[in-house]
Amino acid sequence: MYRQTALCYTICAMLSLDFVRQHPERVREALRLRRDSRSIDEILRLAEQQRGLATRCDGLYVSLKSLKETLKNAPVEQRATLSRQVKALTQDVRSLELQITESSNRLQPLLLGLPNIPHESTQEGNDESDDRELRHWGRPPAIHFEPQPHWELGERLGILDSESGVKVAGSRFVALRGAGARLERALIAFMLDVHTREHSYTEVMPPHLVKRTVMQAAGQLPKFEDQAYFCGEDELYLNPTAEVPLLGMHSDTTFPEGTLPLRETAWTTAFRREAGSASRQTRGLLRLHQFNKVELFQIVPPQLSYDTLEQMTTHAETILQQLDLSYRVVALCTANLPFTATKTLDIEVWMPGMGEYVEVSSVSNCETFQARRANIKYKVDKTKTAFVHTLNASGLAVGCTMAALLEVHQQADGSVVIPKVLRPYMGIAQISSNQ
Fold it and tell me: Which residue, 54, 89, 109, 400, has most beta carbons within 10 Å?
């Protein structure tokens, strides 16, 4: 279990200009831990420049106010001179205001580009080899024949149609047919039912298109601008994960005392360009540009967020356990942390046809990072408010789960046994090529 200090509440947030200016070494250390080569020198330079401009502007405001008072009571013969002085000072003030605005416009994207600060319990590391396995559930299945990867199995069963997906939309798009389409739909319904009935989440069906301000609040922009699908005419982005619209629905909200935690789950189709992706896992149902995902989202008081991180991980694990899929939980090292996260636990399922583990869920605590961007607070008491902590998890990525299910439950004759919990949704106990 991870415990926070008051310091963590303060620093693990969207990095405000005041924080960067007051704690530059802490920010530099966080960037080093993340293996992020960017410098904050320009931010500090612009911050000092902005502070100097603001001081000068405040001084001119005082002088201008005094001069206007003098003008009101001045003799007629002095008014022309004083009016010229007022005009000149007004122009100087406006010039300084424009410089302050220009400085702010240059600072904002630099600040928005700074990632969250890793939690003290996140292990320092350079790549996935430094991630730490926390626990393991189940045993990889004993398959007494050569297991097929899910894309070969799916094509032979006639449920996975990669050729049609490419014909319609290009590479990394697939079409599902017959029992494959039904299995995807069954997994979505099963996941939502478990999370709403057993874990007390409220189901939400949010818009699939979101504003730029919502993408920015969630930490998707400007960091992942090249990964997003953008509808230019309407200035809307296709949802990259349901976490984004769920967060946006609560922007500029102050939750009354005693109303948290808030738990929401949503199924959406997610869209990601995956530009420049070098992953090996790009065949079949993995790393698609369009995929279905059931998302878990919580808004909690700060003192609950690390217990909630563990809780949400177990909620996601429940799905894999009921599907009888072996998996491991891995704590990501500092270099692998998502941009908005202070700590992240990945759940990776065993894929016997591929002979490796594949991520099906990423569970992240963002602490106040997103809440500051989205202006989400809660009433601590009758007189005090504070920023909430936000957490998100895949509960689960549907295509990856389906891929694992096909590989794990495949039979020697090429058929696939449907897990018992899905049979009421499917109406069948097995998928075979003659269906």
Answer: 400
Crossing angle of helices 305-322 and 179-197, rounded to 10°: 140
293 three-state secondary structure: strand
Q: Taking the chain (435 residues) in consecutive chunks of 10 residues, what is each chunk's mean pLDDT?
A: 38 67 95 96 93 90 86 82 86 88 90 95 96 94 92 96 95 95 98 98 97 96 94 95 98 96 98 71 88 98 97 98 98 97 98 96 97 96 94 98 98 96 97 77
Q: Which residue has the tokens 């205001």?
A: 97
| DSSP letter assigned to residue 429 | S
Q: What gap in Å lies between CA 33 and CA 122, rounded to an integer?
A: 10
Residues contacting residue 296 through CB under 8 Å, at least 6 positions apart: 195, 201, 263, 264, 265, 312, 315, 316, 392, 393, 394, 395
Residue 351 parent element (H or E): strand 343-351
Cis amide bond preceding 302, omega within 30? no
Task: Using alpha carbons, select from 250, 242, 392, 387 the residue that is nearest to residue 309.
Answer: 392
Q: How far apart are CA 186 and CA 421, in angstroms?
A: 10
Give residue 151's pLDDT: 96
Q: How many CB atoms lie within 10 A of CB 171?
A: 10
Between CA 289 and CA 264 the distance in angstroms is 25
Per the listing, tokens 């009921």 go with 322
Tally the C-alpha atoms within 13 A of residue 153's C-alpha that lie toward its C-beta. 30
Give CA angle at 179 (291, 183), nearest 5°: 45
Q: What is the pLDDT of residue 276?
A: 54
Rounded to a whole number, what is the distance in angstroms from the first to the last CA of the chain? Answer: 48
Q: List the one residue out of 275, 19, 279 whose CA is nearest residue 128.
A: 279
